[in-house]
Amino acid sequence: MTSHPLAYAARAARFRPSGVRSVFDIAMRPGMISLAGGSPDLSVLPREQVAELAAGMIRGAGPDALQYQPAQGLDGTIEAIREVMRAEGVDAAHDRIQVTAGSQMGLQVLTTLLADPGDTVIAEAPTYVGALSVFGGLEARVAQVEIDEHGMLPDALEATIARVRATGSRIPFLYTVPTFGNPSGASMSAARREAVVELCRREGILIVEDNPYGMLAFDDEHRLPLYARDPENVVYLGSFSKIFSPGVRVGWLAAPPELRGRVQLAVEAMTIHASVVGQVLAQRFITETDWRGHVRRSADVYHARRDALMAALDEHMPPGTTWTRPHGGFFTVVTLPPGTPVDGLLDAAIDARVVYVPGSEFMADGSRADTLRLAYSFEPEHRLAEGARRLGEAIRALG
Ligand code: PMP
Q: What domains appear along the chain, each with residue ranges and CATH number?
């Protein structure tokens, strides 16, 4: 057998190992406490009931669940998605919804359709690392806009739009996680939502709203998705990953019908359609279980874990350290006091058997090395507390 060196396409170099993936492997080591990956806790799932649904799916739907199906998604799954969206206060028509293999694929498809190489996507600073991978892979640039605990600052957004346009680069869309952001945990206030939607409409910039965490609130505040405010200029990305199971790989997008049709063509080219087995299971989870009760119980678990982590950070972080206090979702961002040595901190933490994701992963320019993303979604409370203790020790040991 001859072995030739593979001649990769130039874009292959743009798919680099993500820091999140490598810490994911480290998180699996025995004795390691993981504040890294944003995995949902599946222990509250009604496992027997889901097992019944899965068995019944094959026995009942049989060939239909195992056959090729329409590329938009199964009608029943789309109706289940509409029910989930109604629970968030959004009424999206059937022909606006496209089922995807997770919302990650929805973002990949949208970026493929909307962004040419050299275009500049605008996003929050910091933003979802998986979105940065999509934008980078498709050779788009990224301009990140300052946020505070109420989300994106409209004035900073306006200034960024002007700055990008002055360079001659086109802006294909604004990408935002407005509710319980990954990694920030921040949520846009109602006033900010209105201002951002209004500004983007005025500037002719499409908004891509990524909302996997919106239903996992720790309070009663209703955070109406941007999509409900301007369905003609906002594309909504939704997912079953955090409210049911990430392993089923079923997400969706809601978009104006013309764009939705284009998305379907791209989905057909990439995967033909999302997994039918996953779609049927997700659909049956919505139609045949108390899914709202499940989401409420999940949110209660994450709420208690947030409290446990915050209390432990209070106890163990060096004076001058700050962190965000999310009202839902999975994550907080910790900012170390100025002057704290950060080189080698991740290694020191891993030696102390705790792992997190460096904040620089969430910045296109790799800045913010003095920040850390901590996830409280996966570990139980006593381990979150111990993780924060080990982390505090690792920080002090370097100082
Ligand atoms: N967007 C955000 C903000 C996320 O946090 C995640 C998952 N970590 C995704 C998208 C991807 O979700 P999915 O499993 O639906 O592809």
A: 10-38+293-398 (3.90.1150.10), 61-288 (3.40.640.10)
